[in-house]
Design brief:
The structure is a single chain. By secondary structure, the protein is mostly beta strands. Strands 2-5-4-3 form a four-stranded mixed sheet, with helices on one face. Strands 1-6 form a two-stranded antiparallel ribbon. It is globular. It is about 10% helix and about 35% strand. It has a domain of about 60 residues: Roll (2,3-Dihydroxybiphenyl 1,2-Dioxygenase, domain 1), CATH 3.10.180. About 15% of the residues are buried. A hairpin with a 2-residue loop joins strand 4 and strand 5. The C terminus is likely disordered.
Length: about 90
């Protein structure tokens, strides 16, 4: 198990219902906290947040509860998504 800093990635979307279907249903990410205009997703112990904006463009005024600076994530076995990638990486 590796102990690494967490990351938080905010993604603007124009339809939060479609975002739930894609990130939860298609990608298989587990849903965390949410509100009417945003959803937190667990991405291997990191946080991906979808924020609904009028046109899917970044809204600098959008806010969600923030993570504590310097948080550490435990990244042993992924809890989601459950599918395995078939693409390979070359370095």
């Amino acid at each position: 198990m590796t102990n690494r800093p967490c990351f938080h990635l905010a993604i603007p979307v124009d339809d939060i219902v479609a975002a739930r279907e894609f990130y939860g249903g298609v990608l298989g990410l587990s849903e965390g906290r949410s509100d009417t205009l945003w959803v937190d997703w667990n991405f291997y112990g990191h946080r991906v947040v979808t924020h609904q904006t009028a046109d899917g463009s970044p809204d600098l005024r959008a806010t969600t509860p923030s993570m504590t600076t310097g948080s550490r994530c435990r990244t042993s076995a992924p809890s989601s998504p459950t599918t395995t990638s078939t693409t390979s990486r070359t370095r």
